[in-house]
Amino acid sequence: MRIDPDTLPADVEALRAQVLVLAETLEAERTARRRVEDLNDRLRHLIHQLQRMQFGPRSERLDADQLNLALEDIEQARAETEAVAEKDEPALKRRRTGERRKARGVLPPHLPRIEVVVAPESTACPCCQGTMHVIGEDRSERLDVVPARYQVIVTRRPRYGCRSCSGAVVQAPAPARLIEGGLPTERLVANVLVTKYADHVPLYRQAQGFARQGIMIDRSTLAFWVGYAAAELTPVWRLMRADLLRSGKLFVDETRAPVLDPGRGRTKSGYFWALARDDRPWRGGDPPAVVYHYAPGRSAKHAADVLDGFTGIIQTDGYTVYKTVAGRAGIGIAHCWAHLRRDFFDVTKTGPAPIAEEALQRIAQLYAIEAEIRGSPAADRRSVRQTRSRPLVDEFKRWLEQQLGRLSAKSTTAEAIRYAL
């Protein structure tokens, strides 16, 4: 900022006031610059984390949840910087408000609408003082929340006695409860379960939430509710599992989960095994369903326990344990094309990859055939696959074998091809 000496005031007090204004402006600019520098530092750190996740050694790669937390931090810092800038520039605020409105989407129609009408203080015409009428309106919507409201259900069971017969007393039986003599309603227990398992809020934090409402419930009490509910839900799980095992085809997959290991100061690996059925794409008669098994490992023994009693076809990734178990139990295997395709797709995102791109194009031809026959009877789908898809798959296999001989064994494309073969 350049200052013309000729424009400076001669009066000392006026000059002092101008210096103070300039000092305040300079400090505000320094503060804004520090915010931008902090944001840039966070962005550089996030880029470094993303590079580690994509290209770093497997042992150093970050979990996606950690990156989401980092992204939230960046987005909050950016919003703070924008809010400060918009206070100083109203035009910038108007422009950005319009951009945000376009990007925020539409609120779901099933939500109840509470209308608030903001009318002028006076509807008299400023010209003739006559009564004005509505000719239109501007309408806007904002999302609101009504915080959870706890209430106490008081159950009263009056006892009735006869004035003439001293021994005759009638009273309705106590209603059945999930936890006899317990504090919670079934709805409260369900809320604790959903908050713990769907929202991933541990019980000690839920206990803290109750305490903020003046309700003192110990974590051990919440744990008892969860355990009791699990015991009551186990028969439902068994029925669902039995229904799935009667299916002709199931999806099977295992997902690693860190498990607390008391006494060792660190976590160990456990696995959730999922059995899933979804026959909707071909209009099957069975409803979609999924059940989960927990096991401390992912060996053939655990896979055999999960699939015990099943005699159909399993659709899986290329994990060798499934092949081992299927061979013992007489189960058929249908490997998942989505897993195969994903490896080639990941290769194309790291740079030019003509072989991986052609592989994706060949897979797309198979996907197009599946889109055509989706919903057709099973016999028709099988016929089309044998006549149209099988030749494409056979040729794809020969082509992959040829390309594998041209590549370095350590390349990511070669890894994707070996997985496919």
Automatic annotation (TrEMBL):
User: Which residue stretches does the UniProt record annotate as biased composition, category Basic and acidic residues?
Assistant: 82-92
Region listing for Disordered, in residue ranges: 82-101
Domain named Transposase IS66 zinc-finger binding is located at 123-165
* Domain Transposase TnpC homeodomain residue range list: 42-116
Every copy of the Transposase IS66 central domain together lies at 182-421
| Xref: PANTHER family | BLL1576 PROTEIN (PTHR33678)
What is the protein named? Transposase
